[in-house]
Amino acid sequence: MIPALKIASLANPRVKSLVRLRERREREQAGVFLIEEGLVIERARAAGFPFQEIWACPERMDGAARALYDAIRHDGVAGVEVTAMVMDKVAYREKSDGLLVVAPRHVRRLEELVLPASRPALVVVLEDVEKPGNLGAVLRIADGVGAHAVLACGGADTDNPNVLRASRGAYFTVPTVAAPRDEITAWLRSRGIRLLAADPGGADLWDACDLTGPVALVLGAEHDGLTPMLRAACDGTVKIPMHGAGDSLNVATAAAVLLYEAARQRRTGARTA
Predict the structure, then answer these.
(1) What would the DSSP string read from start to end of 32-88?
(2) Calpha distance 272→206 (Å, rounded)
(3) Which end of the chain is more exposed for a tag (fewer CB within 10 A), N or C?
(4) For each of the chain's 273 residues, which pLDDT tens digit applies?
(5) What DSSP element (H or E) covers 181?
(6) What is the CA radius of gyration of the chain?
(7) Domain final residue pick, 54, 86, 104
(8) Which residues are within 8 A (CB) of 72 and not within 5 positions of it... i.e. 6 or more apart?
(9) What are the beta bridge partners of residue 123?
(10) How far, in Å, are 51, 61, 98, 163 from residue 37 at the CA level?
(11) 273 in a domain, yes or no?
């Protein structure tokens, strides 16, 4: 195993390169992104995601972080050991646990997705959901119910550090594709998947819709909801009733309500409780 590179200076060019990866444009140009936090790194490794190098701060690592670092190094991944000051500079999150992985970006494409033939597809479509934390939360929920893919239209930054953190590693287990709206709807229709739009004025209640067949749950932006174009492309609308002052739920919360209702129906074979 090649000894780890040691870096102590904030002026080191490699440190500056990692700092720039906070920006989407820099990640796209460099072809790499950052994975932080031991749990997320461990889940990426378990999913077989390739690592380019691992950065570690010995004075920040506890026993579990040290064991993970050693295991990844024994996988043949190059190591870089840094001071706490350098780790604080390159880490996106505050209070880093002393580990950070640089990994090659993998831009998933619609044509690469393979849906299971043994059970009806369950897909989430997000339109113009720009807050990375919301996208990551939806991925975590989708993983929890066993959804088959999350498709994002409207320029979502899918490998933003906050997406990975909020997903708790689900980014590496739930296929996630960013593509134009028309391509997503055409891909779904070609596979016989019904598009169901979440809308506060929807025609059917969330627990009265049949979600047992192949379905894509379509949710819009945090403030504006779905665009008229995408809403018109859907086969139906579903609403989650609001009995207070608010007129809608956070997009991740709405996704949780609908996805777990779909999971319940598929488990029991019934629409209503």
Answers:
(1) EEEEESHHHHHHHHHTT---SEEEE-TTT--HHHHHHHHHHHHTT-EEEEE-HHHHH
(2) 10
(3) C
(4) 788 899 999 999 999 999 999 899 999 999 999 999 999 999 999 999 999 999 999 999 999 999 999 999 999 999 999 999 999 999 987 778 899 999 999 888 888 888 888 889 999 999 888 788 999 999 999 999 999 999 998 878 888 888 999 999 999 999 999 999 999 999 999 999 999 988 876 667 777 788 899 999 999 876 677 788 888 888 888 888 766 656 666 888 889 999 999 999 988 765 554
(5) helix 181-190
(6) 21
(7) 104
(8) 41, 45, 51, 54, 101
(9) 149, 216
(10) 14, 11, 8, 13
(11) no
Give the predicted TM-score (pTM) of the model: 0.88
The encoded tokens of residue 254 equal 């709405």
Nearest to 221 by CA among 154, 124, 127: 127
Q: Which domain holds residue 253?
A: 110-268
Q: Give the chain's domain count.
A: 2
Residue 263 φ then ψ, to 5° = -65, -40
267 three-class SS:
helix
Inter-residue contact 196 to 257 (CB < 8 Å): no
Nearest to 28 by CA among 89, 104, 110, 91: 104
On whether the CB atoms of residues 231 and 200 are closer than 8 A, the answer is no
β-pairing verdict for 194-198 and 204-205: unpaired
Q: Are residues 93 and 152 in the same domain?
A: no
Record the tokens describing residue 195, joined without a space: 């598009």
* Phi, psi angle pair for 53, to nearest 5°: -160, 160
Same structural domain, 159 and 261? yes
- Rounded to whole angstroms, the Cα distance separating 160 from 134 reads 11
